[in-house]
Structure formats: structure tokens, C-alpha cells
Write a structure and sequence with these properties.
- The complex is a heterodimer of chains A (153) and B (776).
- With 153 residues, chain A is α+β, with helices and mostly antiparallel strands.
- Chain A has two domains: 2-76, Ubiquitin-like (UB roll) (Roll); 85-151, DNA polymerase, domain 1 (Orthogonal Bundle).
- In chain A, 32% of the residues lie in helices and 12% in strands.
- Chain A is built from five helices and five strands, in the order ββαβββαααα.
- Chain A has helices at residues 21-28, 85-93, 102-115, 121-128, 139-148; strands spanning 2-5, 8-11, 47-50, 53-56, 69-71.
- In chain A, strand 3 and strand 4 (53-56) form a beta hairpin.
- In chain A, helix 2 runs antiparallel to helix 5.
- Chain B is an alpha+beta fold.
- Chain B has three domains: 40-134 and 188-266, Alpha-Beta Complex (Aldehyde Oxidoreductase, domain 3); 282-450 and 609-775, Aldehyde Oxidoreductase, domain 4 (2-Layer Sandwich); 456-602, 2-Layer Sandwich (Aldehyde Oxidoreductase, domain 4).
- In chain B, 29% of the residues lie in helices and 23% in strands.
- Chain B is built from 19 helices and 29 strands.
- Chain B has an eight-stranded mixed sheet with strand order 3-5-1-12-9-10-11-20, with helices on both faces.
- In chain B, helix 14 runs parallel beside helix 15 and helix 18 (736-747) runs parallel beside helix 19 (764-775).
- The longest helix of chain B has 32 residues, at 522-553.
- Chain B is globular, with a radius of gyration of 27 Å.
- The relative contact order of chain B is 0.13.
- Mean pLDDT of chain B is 96; it is low at 1-14.
- Classes of the chains: A alpha+beta (153), B alpha+beta (776).
- At the A-B interface, helix 2, helix 3, helix 4 and helix 5 of A face helix 1 and helix 17 of B.
């Protein structure tokens, strides 16, 4: 059994299948960008993309990613390490304060923009409504996503 | 640069970045406590918490848990080698209770094991016998039993009783405001790592490095120099990690000391929400006298805070409530009484605003009632009563550079207030179940720790021979971007670009005795200390630069006329012939010039006599105001915010983008507190909403359609480093405007002739109840 994690093929052991996906990514693969914010799938900090759809990794098992493409925040930057335009937009718009919700927020926005290159502000709100941020008040997050949309067209 | 540097915005080479860690955050590369690679042999700690708010502990049997394979230690009060005491301002809080639990969620025992799963299983095997006792949960119960943390406190000015007797109108009432869960995204956490000898390093998610160090040493029976506390950043805190992080760090430290292995303790969200203290709920009573024009002449208020199970920061929080009981209004005769009640809830603690929002809410209710009594517009009443330049507060500090009449005027213009009033009236006339209302709240917020000695800070700055800089300061980065601001200050002082500076973790070895990063003072205090350190380096570099300019370019210039800017040093008359900063630094090094500096800053002139209730507790005040346009559905009770307008005086902001982010985030947080964030507990003192699916914080759907923030940037004498002002807390209070907007909407039912009895927070239930009451 395999999964593609950030573009790299990874063989999954039988033992791994029952493991919690968030713990697996963080503790075994060292991909600590996904955060444990609530453990019940309600805050969005653990969001990763599975086949370009946002999932709450804290509520998933490794079995759920068999044969799938998994994108974590570590896989979004370009090969040369430079930031993806969406990441740059978050940084430029001041859409970040403490940074704990940021990886999940960026990935959720990435999934939206892959599916919808010209989202309205209302559509952006709807897409992000399951991701909690306690610092920013969200306004700059909407601005960042809106300004990054052009890079997906 | 000269003395007037103080009020001149720093010249930073290049555009200031939003956040020094921004690139790391968006790439998922920034590390929080539990993101660091795990040290070899690390254990995981889990806690057994008291299920009872108050119970006698009859016995604790840990034998079965200790025997579970993979368990390294099971610890209770019997295992504390030093003092079983983690109180700080007041020593009244045990690490583990020994005879009686004081709140539901209090840790009674700790298990350290090879995995979280084993630790959790072992916790389930600990047998504790309790005898349940009757808890005290409410302010009313505590007041009845005289359960106060200290004798009531008083601030008095003028003759309130006489002024009440003479007033044209007298009103009285009671006002309650609710608690609030911090909901920092990163839950409480600490990693304790043993070193050689007695050393332990605590990677603690705390706002208070020195407090954690001091108390961990006390609990372990060690010295402060055995304990190092290191904090790179926090995933939000909002006051919830100022005092309330200490217990988790001490528990991890204890387990580390006992096992001699690294230990990680991280609370699950449900544990964090169920066990930790919140914003203090308040129940207050007031009497107010005013003239027929609406001028407040007398105000007697009693502010009662629910402090929870231990003193924690309750007395300081109460003090700030009392010092903000006047908010933005001049009151010639005032009597402010404060009481902090002991109850059996988790110890309530610091939360952005630190008591000020609760004190301010009461007098804002009074302003509204004055307006309703006289049939005036509440905004006019607020403007009429606003401080004018130099008028004194009830505690005797003059309000210098008071500007509320002007700021309220700006707000009226920005929001087109008169037109908006007309539109709202039209809307309400044509809608039966949907009603709209407007709320306005001005804020005056005093900056400084009211415990005067805390107003000090240090910074440690090293310039390396390649011209790069390592900067440590006492502030903890938690999203407020104190690192960015402090780096900007040092960069400006040295005339170098920000990318030459690395801001290090907050670490007790590099910066000792640091005050908590709190009270909106992080950038003021630490920025000033960093400026002092950078200034020393500059002074030492100047003679070297003067000599180099002469040798290299034949320029004779006195040291005090040198310009440090754009990574170069030059004679301002010959800007084309500079010395590069890196070259200068290297030259200084080979000439044995000290390139390290420790800067220290103490805020001048702040003092407060608690017994007399008089003094000058604040270095300066922050001023601003906010308006919220709200809509309520009287059938469902749901409300929404349509527009928000804020006018906030930033003075000479160090970084307007950061300040705008603070204003927006704080407003939304305050809006949540005032409207839908409801902290509820059952009759046994157990919090009921302990997950994000049952406790609602604002989501992106709760943003107003129009969110307009005007920052009034201008030089102010009463300000801090480079003429800037603190920003973190004051804008939270703007969120109260949403509550007043909802109330205004409900009152349209009775043509604004009588007041709605609306509870706080203004939940859907509260809205429906208030509307039904008003309709009769």
C-alpha cells in the first residue's frame, strides 16, 4: 500500500493503517506544520489536502490516505524553497498573527482556489468558515485569498 | 539623530515586514513547543483532575497505575520535593492539592509514561476517594459568606453622597458581565529537559519566563539558576498564559526531576477548556447622579469579580477594573469599591483587557441610561461627559492629551452617524421581526503595569563581526509581533536593515527577571530596552567610524554628528563617502571594542498608592472609539454585525500594519465576548462548553460587511518608544459596541423610551428574553 505525500511515494505498512493521520504526519514523518488544535475536527488547524480536498487529519486514519495524494503545508512551497503565491499573499496581507492556524488556513484556501479561480468574498468566507483563528479577526485572511486567486487562473 | 528622536518615527531600511516569522508560519516551518524534534527518551505526561469543585481527598492509590508497563512515574502532592506552592502574588495555590480540591479540573496526580496512550491508561487506574463538599460558585454566594481574596479596595474622589443628594437625577442599577474562554489555538504545553547537575530547561508556552523559572525552582527545591525557561513563540495567549501557564510547566518540571528524563505535558483542548481559568465574570452595582443636561456629577460603583479558586492575578485585575471604572468620562465625585471573590471555579485569570472591559461596561451602561432618562442620543451624552485635556481621574492622574470629543466626532463623520440613525429608524419602522440598532463605545485605556515595579525590561544585543545582530529581549512573541517591533527599534537605532537582526527566543539565561509580556507593554518596555542596548553599541562604534572616515576619505567629523542609516555610517555632509556597517563592526572588533550590550529600561514616573487609591499608575493613555451597526432577529434571537467603524489614536505607530491587525483582531474577540461566547457551568461547578463545537468563538462568517478602521497617527508627548503607543488590549473593549447595538435594536420596540433588560453576553436566548420583557 502506498500514498503520495507532498508528491513523494511512501509505502505504508499494515501497522500504520490504524494510526491517527495527524499523529502519523507529525510524529513519524516530522511534518509538524499540521497542528493539533482541538482533536475533534472542529478548529481546522490540522487541515491537510487529500486529493485536493481539505480534510481534518485529526479525525482521519492512515487507512484513509491509501493511494491518495496528500498535500501538507510543507509541500506547498516551490521546489527551490520559495513560497507559493498564496503563502506569499498571506504574509504580505498581514493575514498572520500567532501562526498556529495558518497552515490549515492556507491549505483550505488552496483547495478553494484550485476548484474556483475567481471566488467571491462570500465564497471565500464559506470555504474558510470551519477554520478558527483567534488572533486576526479574519479580514486580512479574506484579502490574502482574494489577492492570490489570480495566480490560479 | 538627536533628542527629538523620541517622537520621530524610526527610519527603517526597506519596508517593514508584517511579521519576522511570517514566512516561516505560512510554510509550516515555525516551531511551537511540541513541534520541536523530540529529545531521546522523552516521556509523556497526563493528569488526573478532580471531578469535584470542592472535595476532601480521603485517599489516593497509585499502585496499580505505577505497575502498568511503560509508566515511569505517578506523582501526587507527596512527591513534591520543594514547596507544594505555586502562588505568585499571593502564595495560596498548591501544585497538587493535599487535603481538599478547590475546583473541578484541579490536577490531583500526574502520570509520566512512554506514550500518551499508556499515560492516559494509567491515569484511569489511579483510585482517589473523595468526600464531596458544597462548592461556592457565584459572586452572590461568596459575598454572603464574606469569601474575599483581600479586604475590599477603594478609590474615592470628591463627595459622592453630597453630589448624589444634589443631582437633578439619580439612577441606580446592577450590571453583570460574563466570562470568556481564551481559546488560544495552541493549548497549554511544556517540555522539560534535564541537563547535567540539577539543570532543567523548560520549553514552556508561557508569557512569563521569570515567573515559571522562580516557581519551578521553588517547587523542586532548586535555585533559579538551575532552571532555564525558553520560549520561542506562543500560538496565541491573550493573557491565558501569563499566570496560568505556570502550573503545567511546574508539573512537567516535577516529572522531569523525578524521572531524570525529558517530559512533555500538553493539554488536550477539552482539558484546557475544562480545567483552566477564564476572564472574570463581574456583578456590579451603581448609583449615578447627573444634571438635567446629562452631565455625570456623582458615581458610586461596587465592582465584584468572581476570582475562582485561588488569588492568581485577581487583585491586579480588580485594580485595573477600578482604574477604568471612569472609562473616558470625567466624574467630579466618585467612589469605586472593588471586591475579588473566592469561589470554586478554576482560578480566573488575565484575559486581554485585564478587568478594564468589565469596569468600563458598567459606566457605559450608565451613559446609556442617562441618555434614555433624558431622551437624548447616547452618543451626545458620551461626548458631553468625555474628559477634556488635563481633567483628573478619580485616582488623581490628569488625563493629558485627552481627545475623545474629537475622536467621537471623527467616528460620527466616518460612520455618517446622523444618516445611519435615520436609516435604522426607517428600517425598524418597516420591519416587524428584524430590528437594527447602533452601539457606540469610547475607550480610554491606561498603559503600564499597575504594579509599578513590573514596568522594567532588559535586552541583550550582540553584533557579530560580519555585521549581523543577535537580539534577545524579555518579551514573548505570541502573534502580537513584539519581535518585529523590537527589532525595528534596534534596527533604527543602529541604522541597519531588519534582515541583519535575528530576534532570539525569550530565554531566562539571556534575559533574566523579565516581567510578563502583558498589559500592552511588550513593545514599549522591551523596545525601549533594545533601543538602550543598541544606543550603547552605536556610541562605541562612533569613534571608530570617525577615525575610519578620516583615514579612508579624509573626512573630519565629530562623533555626535555621524549618521547611521541604510547599513552605512557617514558624515551627513558627505553621504557619498560612507563606511559600510559590516566593515565598521569588523574594525571595531579588531580594535577590541565591546560589541555586546545589555540595555535596561524602567518606565519613569509611575506610582500608585493602593491604600490611598491615588497616584499616577499609567505612563500614558490610549484613546479610541467604535461604532457597531447590529441587526437582530427577534424570533430566533440571532444577531449579526453589519458595520463596524473604529477610530483609534496610534500616535506614531512603529508599524501601522501590525497595529491594524491588533485592532481588528481585538475588536472581533471583544465582539465574541459581548455577544455569543458564553461560559456556562453546571451546579457542581463543571464547565459545560469545553470544545469548539459547543463554545462558539467568532468565525469568518461573523465579520461585519463593512469594517472600517481609522488610525489617527500623530505625534503625542504622552507615548513610548519612538512616540508609539501600546496596542494589544484597548481595542478589545470596542467589541462592547456590538452589545449596545443589539440593545438599541431591541429598544426600538418601545421607541427607545425604556431600557431593555439584556443579559451579557447577548446570546440569542438573551435577546428573545429581553424583547419579550420589553413588549410586556
Amino acid at each position: 500500500m502506498i500514498a503520495y505525500i507532498n508528491g513523494r511515494k511512501r509505502v505504508l505498512a499494515e501497522d500504520d493503517l490504524g494510526k491517527n493521520l495527524l499523529s502519523f504526519l507529525r510524529d513519524e514523518l516530522g511534518l509538524t506544520g499540521a497542528k493539533n488544535g482541538c482533536g475533534i475536527g472542529a478548529c481546522g488547524a490540522c487541515t491537510v489536502l487529500v486529493n485536493n480536498r481539505p480534510v481534518r487529519s485529526c479525525r482521519k486514519a492512515v487507512a484513509d490516505i491509501v493511494d491518495a495524494n496528500v498535500l501538507t503545508i510543507e509541500g506547498l512551497a516551490r521546489e527551490d524553497g520559495s513560497l507559493h503565491p498564496l503563502q506569499q499573499a498571506f504574509a504580505d496581507a498581514g493575514a498572520i498573527q500567532c501562526g498556529f492556524c495558518t497552515p490549515g488556513m492556507v491549505l483550505t484556501a488552496h483547495a478553494l482556489l484550485l476548484a474556483n479561480h475567481e471566488p467571491t468574498r462570500a465564497e471565500i468566507r464559506r470555504a474558510i468558515s470551519g477554520n478558527l483563528c483567534r488572533c486576526t479577526g479574519y479580514q486580512q485572511i479574506i484579502d490574502a485569498i482574494e489577492s492570490a486567486a489570480k495566480f490560479y487562473r | 539623530m538627536t533628542k527629538d528622536h523620541q517622537t520621530v518615527k524610526p527610519a527603517i531600511a526597506g519596508a517593514p515586514p508584517q511579521h519576522l516569522s511570517g514566512g516561516l508560519h505560512v510554510a509550516g516551518q515555525s516551531r511551537f513547543v511540541v513541534d520541536e524534534p523530540r529529545p531521546a527518551g522523552m516521556l509523556f505526561a497526563k493528569l488526573l483532575a478532580s471531578p469535584y469543585a470542592r472535595a476532601r481527598i480521603i485517599s489516593i492509590d497509585t499502585a496499580k497505575a505505577a505497575a502498568l508497563p511503560g509508566v515511569a512515574a505517578v506523582l501526587t502532592h507527596r512527591d513534591v520535593p520543594g514547596a507544594n506552592q505555586i502562588g505568585h502574588a499571593v502564595r495560596d495555590e498548591p501544585l497538587f492539592p493535599s487535603d481538599e480540591t478547590a475546583f473541578a479540573g484541579q490536577p490531583v496526580a500526574l502520570v509520566a509514561a512512554e506514550s500518551e496512550a499508556i499515560a492516559a491508561a494509567a491515569v484511569g487506574m489511579i483510585a482517589v476517594k473523595y468526600q464531596e463538599l458544597e462548592p461556592v460558585l457565584t459572586i452572590a454566594q461568596a459575598l454572603k459568606q464574606d469569601l474575599l481574596y483581600a479586604p475590599e479596595r477603594r478609590i474615592e474622589r470628591g463627595d459622592v453622597d453630597q453630589a448624589l443628594a444634589k443631582a437633578d437625577h439619580v439612577i441606580e442599577g446592577t450590571v453583570a458581565s460574563g466570562g470568556q474562554e481564551h481559546f488560544y489555538l495552541e493549548t497549554q504545553a511544556c517540555r522539560a529537559v534535564p541537563g547535567e547537575d540539577n539543570e532543567i530547561v523548560l520549553y514552556s508556552a508561557t508569557q512569563s519566563t521569570a515567573e515559571v523559572q522562580e516557581i519551578a525552582a521553588r517547587v523542586l527545591g532548586l535555585s533559579s539558576n538551575d532552571i532555564t525557561v525558553d520560549v520561542r513563540r506562543l500560538g496565541g495567549a491573550f493573557g491565558g498564559k501569563e499566570r496560568a501557564a505556570t502550573i503545567w510547566a511546574c508539573l512537567a518540571a516535577l516529572a522531569c526531576r523525578k524521572t531524570r528524563r525529558p517530559v512533555e505535558l500538553r493539554l488536550e483542548r477539552i482539558e484546557d477548556m475544562a480545567w483552566t481559568g477564564k476572564r472574570h465574570p463581574y456583578e456590579s452595582t451603581y448609583q449615578a447622579g447627573f444634571t438635567r443636561d446629562g452631565k455625570l456629577t456623582a458615581y458610586a460603583v461596587e465592582l465584584n469579580a468572581n476570582g475562582g479558586a485561588y488569588t492568581d492575578l485577581s487583585m491586579a485585575i480588580l485594580e485595573r477594573s477600578m482604574l477604568h471604572a471612569d472609562n473616558a468620562y470625567h466624574i467630579p465625585n466618585a467612589r469605586i469599591v472593588g471586591r475579588a471573590c473566592r469561589t470554586n471555579l478554576p482560578p480566573n485569570t488575565a484575559f486581554r483587557g485585564f478587568g478594564a472591559p468589565q469596569g468600563i461596561f458598567v459606566i457605559e451602561r450608565v451613559m446609556e441610561r442617562i441618555a434614555r432618562t433624558l431622551g437624548k442620543d447616547p452618543l451626545d451624552v458620551r461626548t458631553l461627559n468625555a474628559y477634556r485635556e488635563g481633567e483628573a481621574t478619580p485616582y488623581g492622574q490628569p488625563v493629558d492629551e485627552a481627545c475623545h470629543p474629537e475622536l467621537l466626532d471623527r467616528l460620527q463623520r466616518n460612520a455618517q452617524y446622523d444618516r445611519l440613525r435615520g436609516e435604522v429608524a426607517g428600517f425598524n419602522a418597516s420591519h416587524r421581526t428584524l430590528k437594527r440598532g447602533i452601539g457606540v463605545v469610547p475607550v480610554k485605556f491606561g498603559i503600564s503595569f499597575t504594579t509599578a515595579f513590573l514596568n522594567q525590561a532588559s535586552a541583550l544585543l550582540w553584533v557579530y563581526t560580519d555585521g549581523t545582530v543577535s537580539l534577545s529581549h524579555g518579551g514573548v512573541e505570541m502573534g502580537q509581533e513584539v519581535n518585529t517591533k523590537v527589532a525595528q527599534v534596534a534596527a533604527a537605532e543602529l541604522g541597519i536593515s531588519l534582515d541583519r537582526i535575528r530576534v532570539e527566543s525569550a530565554n531566562t539565561k539571556r534575559v533574566g527577571n523579565a516581567s510578563p509580556t502583558a498589559a500592552s507593554t511588550g513593545s514599549d518596555l522591551n523596545g525601549s530596552a533594545a533601543r538602550e542596548a543598541a544606543g550603547q553599541i552605536r556610541q562605541r562604534l562612533a569613534p571608530v567610524a570617525a577615525r575610519l572616515l578620516k583615514e579612508k576619505h579624509g573626512i573630519k567629523v565629530s562623533e555626535d554628528r555621524l549618521a547611521f542609516a541604510n547599513d552605512r555610517i557617514c558624515d551627513p555632509r558627505h553621504p557619498d563617502k560612507p563606511i559600510p556597517f559590516a566593515e565598521l563592526v569588523h574594525e571595531a572588533y579588531v580594535n577590541r571594542v565591546d560589541l555586546g550590550a545589555h540595555g535596561f529600561y524602567a518606565t519613569p514616573g509611575v506610582h500608585f498608592d493602593r491604600a490611598a487609591g491615588q497616584g499616577r499608575p499609567f505612563h500614558y493613555f490610549v484613546f479610541g472609539c467604535a461604532l457597531a451597526l447590529m441587526e437582530v432577529d427577534l424570533v430566533s434571537g440571532n444577531s449579526r454585525i453589519i458595520d463596524a467603524h473604529i477610530v483609534h489614536e496610534t500616535a506614531s505607530s512603529l508599524n501601522p500594519e501590525i497595529d491594524q491587525g491588533q485592532i481588528a483582531g481585538a475588536f472581533i474577540q471583544g465582539y465574541g465576548w459581548a455577544t455569543f461566547e458564553e461560559v456556562v457551568h453546571d451546579a457542581k461547578g463543571r464547565y459545560l462548553a469545553v470544545t469548539p463545537s459547543t463554545y462558539k468563538i467568532p468565525t469568518i462568517r461573523d465579520l461585519p460587511e463593512t469594517f472600517a478602521i481609522e488610525m489617527v497617527e500623530r505625534p503625542r508627548k504622552c507615548s513610548s518608544v519612538f512616540g508609539s503607543k501600546g496596542i494589544g488590549e484597548p481595542p478589545l473593549i470596542y467589541g462592547e459596541a456590538a452589545w449596545f447595538g443589539i440593545k438599541d435594536a431591541i429598544e426600538s420596540l418601545a421607541d427607545h423610551k425604556s431600557e431593555a433588560d439584556l443579559a451579557f453576553p447577548a446570546t440569542p436566548e438573551a435577546v428573545v428574553l429581553a424583547a419579550e420583557k420589553l413588549k410586556g
